[in-house]
Design brief:
CATH topology of the largest domain: Rossmann fold
CATH superfamily of the largest domain: NAD(P)-binding Rossmann-like Domain
Shape: elongated
Number of strands: 8
Low-confidence stretches: none
Structural class: alpha/beta
Distance between the termini: 35 Å
Oligomer: single chain
Radius of gyration: 21 Å
Largest sheet: 8 strands, mixed
CATH architecture of the largest domain: 3-Layer(aba) Sandwich
């Protein structure tokens, strides 16, 4: 097998998004993909100009081995490639994106102290607007970290975070897109009830959320300041804000993060 730089085991939504980002950054000829669903892996590889292979070959040949499998099957998958990884003399890094699974959990499943980068990406990475949290074991070289950051640069913002905080952050950035999607859908439903066509309602709701997020990031202002700037005295916006407050909007959002965090912690104990 050729020596590919980036290998992706798992061609699901998240693994596929990161594989596409890597192909965009370093060229598809440097990327190889595997998945238990071979047709899915081959389709993804074809779409980004990458190649298809198997798990063991990726473990043997790639500088970066991205693990895009569910937490429930991570252990068995690692067991199947442990021998191949341990036999390697050259430098490499295992990149795990499994929720709730620590660096030490990955190493324990492999049976040796492999160099591991732990990441927590989110689905907006597929359009270059992701939030990718990461940390790494002490035997990952500076060069390996630099190469990882360069390959993921087109996926969005990358931020190093102490591993002990990644599960908490995952409840915001990892699970948050689903919460935001619910909000977009709810805004558009309200607009439809007011008489707007569905396509217009979805466009206005999604662009409003996008623009508001961009304003929050680029202005540096606290969200409360930005909210106050829209709420004219006796106006329609403050009436809507009151309706949200009466129904516990902020408390519900906080509870969603707390519930997601609890579930992520539980996944790590299985």
């Amino acid at each position: 097998m050729a020596n590919y730089k980036y290998g992706f085991i798992g061609a699901g939504n998240m693994g596929g998004a990161l594989a596409a980002a890597a192909a965009k950054a370093v060229g598809g000829k440097n990327v190889v993909i595997s998945d238990r669903d071979e047709d899915k892996a081959k389709d993804l590889a074809s779409s980004i100009g990458a190649d298809f292979s198997d798990n063991e070959s990726i473990a043997l040949s790639c500088d970066y081995i991205f693990l895009g499998v569910k937490p429930q099957v991570l252990g068995s998958m690692l067991g199947s490639i442990a021998k191949a990884l341990k036999s390697r003399a050259g430098k490499y890094a295992v990149v795990s994106m499994a929720a709730g699974q620590s660096i030490e959990t990955v190493r324990a499943a492999l049976g040796f102290d492999a160099p591991v980068i732990r990441i927590m990406p989110n689905t907006p990475a597929s359009v270059g607007a992701g939030m990718i949290l990461y940390d790494f074991s002490d035997n990952v070289s500076k060069k390996a970290v630099s190469g990882f950051l360069a390959s993921m640069a087109t996926a969005g913002i990358l931020d190093r975070l102490d591993e002990k905080l990644i599960d908490a952050a995952c409840a915001v950035s990892g699970c948050g897109p689903a919460f935001v999607d619910l909000f977009i859908e709810a805004l558009s439903d309200g607009a439809v009830e007011c008489g707007l066509p569905r396509d217009k309602a979805l466009l206005y709701a999604a662009q409003t959320v996008f623009g508001s997020a961009k304003l929050a990031l680029e202005s540096g202002k606290h969200p409360a300041q930005l909210k106050d700037a829209v709420c004219s005295p006796g106006g329609s916006t403050i009436a809507g804000v009151r309706a949200l407050e009466e129904r516990g909007f902020r408390a519900a959002a906080m509870d969603a993060v707390l519930e997601a965090y609890g579930k992520t912690v539980a996944l790590g104990k299985k």
